[in-house]
Design brief:
The protein is about 30% helix and about 25% strand. It has a single domain, classed as BirA Bifunctional Protein, domain 2. The chain contains six helices and eleven strands.
């Protein structure tokens, strides 16, 4: 069962805390999709990245926040951010990460196609035995595409995502570059098409949003917000 949560806005620590809390408290065999915005200029970076390297390459005046998920640096000042949280009991939670990544971005590409936006999925970086050159500095999500990222036909990256598996389930945090989308994009139609395609490709049923209070543990969210905003979490690597 896939539940869509209405769009929300929050600061970096709050957005990361809600995703992490949902991962811990989802009911069995449930998945949640949520799209959210940012109330401050924010850049998130992967759990394993080193703070000093990230800070050295980050724009001035932007809030930095370490994600629970992996991946590289993501500047959220002009993106469409979403999270997919899947309980461990859901069948799709046990799919290989590479397959889930492909399925997720296939659904996203289908939704963009309905808006008249042509895309392609990034190939494996190993072609003819050669590695794609890596830029100096920390990984940056929209600079270094990985396999099955969503690309413009000219090769520019449109969308990427990062994952985290725990004993509770799977968290996928994704970002779509607004600069790569049409100015007249119907965001609600795109959102609906993305969720519908995702539901089908993950072989889940879609449930309308009703009383969602049981999904949110506000005490846990506040505790996690303090953690994500702390210097200890920011500088842990």
């Amino acid at each position: 069962m896939l539940i869509t949560i209405p769009n929300t806005f929050g600061d970096a620590a709050t957005n990361m805390a809600i995703d992490a809390a949902l991962l811990e408290t989802l009911p069995p065999a449930t998945a949640v999709f949520r799209h959210y915005g940012w109330t401050e200029p924010a850049l998130t970076f992967g759990y394993s990245q080193h703070y000093r390297e990230v800070a050295a390459h980050a724009p001035a005046g932007i809030t930095l926040c370490r994600r629970l998920s992996g991946g590289g640096m993501v500047d959220h000042r002009n993106d469409w951010t979403y999270a997919l949280v899947i309980h461990r009991d859901a069948t799709c939670a046990h799919s290989a990460s590479t397959e889930l990544y492909r399925q997720l971005h296939t659904a996203l590409a289908d939704a963009l196609e309905q808006q008249g936006i042509k895309t392609r999925l990034a190939p494996c970086p190993r072609q003819c035995g050669a590695l794609v050159a890596k830029i100096a500095g920390p990984d940056q999500c929209f600079v270094q595409p990985v396999m099955n990222d969503v690309l413009h036909p000219n090769g520019a990256k449109i969308a990427g995502a990062a994952m985290k598996r725990t004993r509770h389930g799977l968290l996928i945090q994704g970002s779509i570059a607004r600069s790569m989308l049409a100015d007249n994009l119907d965001q609600q139609a795109f959102h609906n098409a993305f969720v519908t395609a995702l539901t089908a490709i993950l072989q889940m049923t879609q449930e309308p949003a009703q009383d969602l209070r049981h999904l949110f543990d506000n005490t846990l969210i506040q505790q996690l917000k303090i953690r994500f905003a702390s210097e200890a979490w920011l500088h842990r690597r």
